[in-house]
Amino acid sequence: MNPSSRGSPGVTTVIAAHNESANIEACIASVEWALEVIVVENDSLDDTVALAKAAGATVISPPFTTIGLARNQGIVRAKTPWILVLDADERCTPELAQEIREIIRTTNCQAFRVPRRNYFLGREIRHGGWGGGKDKPIRLFRRDLRYNANQVHEQVDASEAQMGELKNSLLHYTYTSLDQYFEKFVRYSRWWAEQNYARGRLGTATAVFVKPPAKFVSMYLLKGGFRDGARGLVLACLAAASVMAKYARLWERSIRNES
């Protein structure tokens, strides 16, 4: 990647990465049009760092606390007025790149929601809450904005910002194997329980019993997950299991101090 050939001096891409050797090169290549790419690396045991550097990115490895705060470490180092945040399993399409280059020249907005097309085990998921244009995180924003410190569901603090929405989508290759899913399943259910318990929320056995089937019904039936075939069914089952794990962990923390 040759910095002198980059096409948009107004954008820095920030990518948080942990053991992403399978994804990092393609992710960086999809944003070669940006002025700079900063990879915020977290204790990777594979070739993530070497591959990112070879692809032309700046790599930093600050102590990890949360994903949002890790991204903030990259944002503060940016040389440009605009930030585009990607996960390593996401790709910026040429159409989205062109839209970004055009819109930052004229907009009065400080932040933009970017739709995502989500893939699971190699196929796009269009229903069950994963598709239909409902997944639109804030990913393009002015450099002065920052992520909050949430362990899960981290968000850009843009409550006072004028918000826009882009038309073109990121491609999000969520899980290429169930091993990836279950590795994140364990980590995120623990983080979710820790975060909610710290905020004073208590868990109940009733929630462990009721919440998972409610999640399945919502995702598979009400939101049309059945239209995605076997993948839709498996995803709804996995989502229900994830909900059960989160509420069971929260319940466990709630009963630890019982006499």
Describe this structure in words.
The structure is a single chain. This protein is of the alpha/beta class and 259 residues long. Helix 5 packs parallel to helix 7 and helix 6 packs antiparallel against helix 7. The chain has seven helices and eleven strands. Mean pLDDT is 92; it is low at 1-5. Strand 7 and strand 8 (123-124) form a beta hairpin. The protein starts with 7 loop residues before the first strand and ends with a helix.
Low-confidence stretches: 1-5
> Largest sheet at a glance?
7 strands, mixed
Q: Identify the CATH homologous superfamily of the largest domain.
A: Spore Coat Polysaccharide Biosynthesis Protein SpsA, Chain A
CATH topology term of the largest domain: Spore Coat Polysaccharide Biosynthesis Protein SpsA, Chain A
Q: How many runs of DSSP E, i.e. beta strands? A: 11
Q: What structural category arises from helix and sheet content?
A: alpha/beta
